[in-house]
Amino acid sequence: MDTERRMYSQHGITLVELMIALAVTSIIVTAGFTVLTTTDKSTKANEQAAGTQQNARLAMELIARDIKLAGFRMPLSPNVPVGGTAGNCASGGTSLAIRPVDKISTPSALPNDDGPDTLSLIVPRTNPGWTLSQAVPVAPASSFTAITLNGTAVSEMQTEGMVNGTGAYVSVGGVLTAQVSTSSGSAVNFSSGFNLPVTFPAGTQVYLLQCITYSIGQTSTACGTSSPCLLRTVDTGTAAPSVTNIVDGVEDIQFALACDGCNGAIKTGVPDGVIDDWNANNTFDVGDWQTNRVWSPLTFDPATIRMVQVNVVARQSVRDQGLGEAQQAGVLTAGPLTISDHIHSADPGYVASTYQQFRRRQLTRTVDARNVEQ
Fold first, then answer.
1. Residues 6+ away with beta carbon under 8 Å from 120
2. From CA 374, how far away is CA 370, in angstroms rounded?
3. What pLDDT sits at residue 84?
4. What biological processes does GO assign it (predicted)?
5. Are 275 and 285 in contact (CB under 8 A)?
6. More confidently predicted of 158 and 88
7. How many domains does the chain have?
């Protein structure tokens, strides 16, 4: 009897109980998978946002650095091109330390841009080996018309654009900027002599002035990816320009300029070290920044530019996929941005539904063009 009672008391798992257990397990596994999927997509979205912010900062640092160096105390007279035609830095044969160009495709786009701006700058180029091999002037002389460089510096500078007869400029130690007449071997000869109360010792760094242009690449051919990028073009005027994608994901750059002497109605157009007060309120404010100007000598002279407001917009390289299992992209940018005088919705090919699927970061900085000759 006891044995029979024990046999009847050992119950197994019923089908209902098994189904309930499977349902509970399925819920737990599904919830866990959902959490993992959401966490993974959230991590990727955060990484993209951080990368986009980093790209904007990197682009800003590169552009701001070169604006600070623009001109590198380049002499205004004789006003001849730097490095041959100076590429984008020359307008009508006149070399310009800073040359901004607004993107306006059609007159209907006025008064706003319908694309990214470009900015050309004359900046110094150097290598560790581009140094003086002997001091100048050589005692007991007090003047000099040439310098001697170490090793293969001269041939390297010739490759970079310092070609005889092109009007190229070099800078000795960032103090003396001189026009090159000829160069060969280890010697660089200047078009005029210098008599200065200073001696440049052996080992002093020598710089070659070049024209560089910042622009936005918008094709996979230019950028190497499907996203836009910041391009840096080096143009010596004597060889084919060298174009490099230096920052991925940069979608827009805009420049506003503050000048001293560009408005003939203010101080009769004579620079006095104070930014032109366009709205006559005795305060430097937003009304004194200039955009949509055709900057060229004798009209709106770019030599009067003293400060540059830089606006950089970077966007993520790919669209986020939402936080659930669905693959649809979310709305990450609520509406078209207005950056300086550029309204993004005015761009050719603008599609709101596509535009809104990319997260964007904007940075703005005011940079003093401290090396422009006055």
1. 87, 88, 89, 96, 98, 99, 100, 101, 211, 212, 213, 214
2. 10
3. 46
4. type IV pilus assembly
5. no
6. 158
7. 1
